[in-house]
Amino acid sequence: MHIVENNGGKSGSRLHRFMDIELELGPAVLVPREETAILGNAAIAILKDRAPGAHVIDMCCGSGNLGLAIASKVPSARVWSADLTDSTVAVARRNADRLGVADRVTIAQGDLFGAFDGLDLAGSIDLVVCNPPYISSARLEGDRSELLESEPREAFDGGPYGLSIHQRLIREAQAFLKPGGWLAFEFGEGQDRQVAALLARARAYAPVSFATDISNAPRVAIARKLDPA
Question: Three-state SS for 120?
């Protein structure tokens, strides 16, 4: 974590550096971890191999860190970000304004892809990225309860097995991705086999590849949507 200073403008807010951009954080949002930069760098590498003007969705955007890092480092990209709560969305919108990319980053509020109802994005997206909650509810009541002391439960609670949002993400992203588009998302240490099984069961993606952390543990899944033809 790299908290750089207090920000007196908003109660409880502070500034944080992630992938060379400075973000406002607050009690309503997750503090971006170093593992999430693995996802961000993988996303940028994918986009640099695609034509300019890529369309990107950043799901479960929190402070907006992933979508805003992508928009900052890939100036031709158009990003749609979403999260569930109004307080989180407000922070992400302030960060888009702070970084001067609000003209290319739309931040919507809603339940996963339902946030984009009426925007006509189906079948138009080159890349979906997501850092979903992935800790089981039971662990948040036990050995990981310290996480809830200063950050919101919604940022961590992934349901009974930690993969409830992943299941929906894999299923619902299909309608938004172009054939040949990419889905990339973070997951918890030791969840790679379950993630691979979920993607295989969807029968909509090529075999998954994984990006690893500094200890060589898989932490990011990268899967290409198959062409139905």
Answer: coil
The C-alpha R_g of the chain, in whole angstroms, comes to 17
Residue type, 196: A
SS3 195: helix
pLDDT tens figures, 118-141: 999 999 999 999 998 755 444 545
Domain ranges of the chain: 29-224
CA pair distance 112, 215, nearest whole angstrom? 31
The alpha carbon of residue 205 and the mean position of all alpha carbons in its chain are separated, in whole angstroms, by 19
Would you state the pLDDT for residue 132? 87
Map residue 169 onto helix, strand or coil. Answer: helix
Phi, psi of 135, rounded to the nearest 5 degrees:
-105, 135
62 and 29 Cβ atoms separated by less than 8 Å: yes
State the DSSP code for 116: G
At position 148, the amino acid (one-letter code) is L
Arithmetic mean of pLDDT, 39-45: 97
Q: Which CATH class is domain 29-224?
A: alpha beta
Find all residues with CB under 8 Å of 5, minimum gap 6, and list them: 14, 15
Q: What are phi and psi of 209, to 5 degrees?
A: -120, 160
